[in-house]
């Protein structure tokens, strides 16, 4: 836990880097993450998973390697970078789906027919830089991760959150949620909670589903 106000720090990122960066998609990174959060909320996700959707790509701005460098061919490991950065304020219910959302893409490319073909051109491009589809051994390890289902849910919202015509709540809508989660985490740490935190939310979907294009939650009007 740090004394910096996480809501202010994150709001500044959304307003600055997030509003400038497109990274190959038709929406800014801020719009993209706000759409992912709206999809999570529309799907009935809990608070931590909604926050994970909202914050999943912050690692493009907070890690040692930027999103720009990713688009130039250098893996910025933004899931890990974002999770490490967010861990100062938030528990694993937020950080682990963030950490694993790129692994979830690699997993779905390996196990779900048609998933890779449905990726946006930018996401298909970065897939190669991020290691390509998982091997069979890697998919087995991923399925054994307790945050597997949560990461896959964030991934579905991530993939659908690229609609230039979508109208979704602004960052300010999520301020109370983030403030509450950070306060909750600070109390957990004060009580001596370990890094493992609570178990993930119960799965709403099996790890992999066929029919990605029709099965993913969609924005109204998308
Ligand atoms: Fe994303």
Explain what the structure shows:
With 222 residues, the chain is an all-alpha fold. It has a single domain (6-215), classed as Hypothetical protein af1432 (Orthogonal Bundle). 58% of the residues lie in helices and 0% in strands. The protein has 14 helices and no strands. The longest helix has 20 residues, at 92-111. The relative contact order is 0.18. Mean pLDDT is 88; it is low at 202-206 and 208-222. Fe (iii) ion (FE) binds next to loops.
Ions, cofactors and other bound molecules: fe (iii) ion
Uncertain runs are 202-206, 208-222
Radius of gyration: 16 Å
- The helix/strand order is HHHHHHHHHHHHHH
- Give the second-level CATH assignment, the architecture: Orthogonal Bundle
CATH topology: Hypothetical protein af1432
Count of discrete alpha- or pi-helical segments spanning 4 or more residues: 14
Structural class: mainly alpha
Mean pLDDT over the residues: 88
Give the beta-strand count.
0
Main sheet?
none
Residues in helices, as a percent range: 55-70%
Strand content: under 5%
Short description:
The chain is mostly helical and 222 residues long. Helices cover 58% and strands 0% of the residues.
């Amino acid at each position: 836990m740090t004394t910096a106000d996480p809501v202010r720090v994150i709001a500044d990122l959304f307003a600055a880097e997030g509003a400038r960066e497109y990274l190959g998609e038709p929406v800014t990174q801020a719009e993209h993450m706000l759409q992912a959060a709206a999809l999570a909320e529309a799907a009935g996700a809990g608070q931590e998973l909604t926050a994970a959707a909202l914050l999943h790509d912050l690692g493009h701005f907070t890690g040692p390697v930027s999103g720009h460098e990713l688009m130039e061919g250098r893996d910025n490991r933004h899931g890990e970078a974002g999770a490490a950065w967010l861990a100062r304020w938030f528990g694993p219910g937020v950080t682990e789906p963030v950490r694993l959302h790129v692994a979830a893409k690699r997993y779905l490319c390996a196990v779900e027919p048609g998933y890779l073909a449905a990726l946006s051109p930018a996401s298909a491009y970065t897939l190669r830089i991020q290691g390509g589809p998982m091997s069979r051994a890697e998919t087995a390890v991923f399925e054994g991760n307790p945050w597997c289902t949560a990461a896959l849910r964030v991934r579905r919202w991530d993939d659908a959150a690229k609609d230039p015509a979508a109208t979704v709540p602004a960052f300010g809508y999520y301020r109370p949620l983030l403030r509450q989660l950070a306060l909750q985490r600070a109390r957990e740490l004060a009580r001596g909670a370990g890094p493992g935190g609570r178990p993930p939310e119960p799965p709403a979907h099996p790890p992999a589903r066929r029919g990605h294009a029709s099965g993913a939650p969609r924005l109204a009007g998308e």
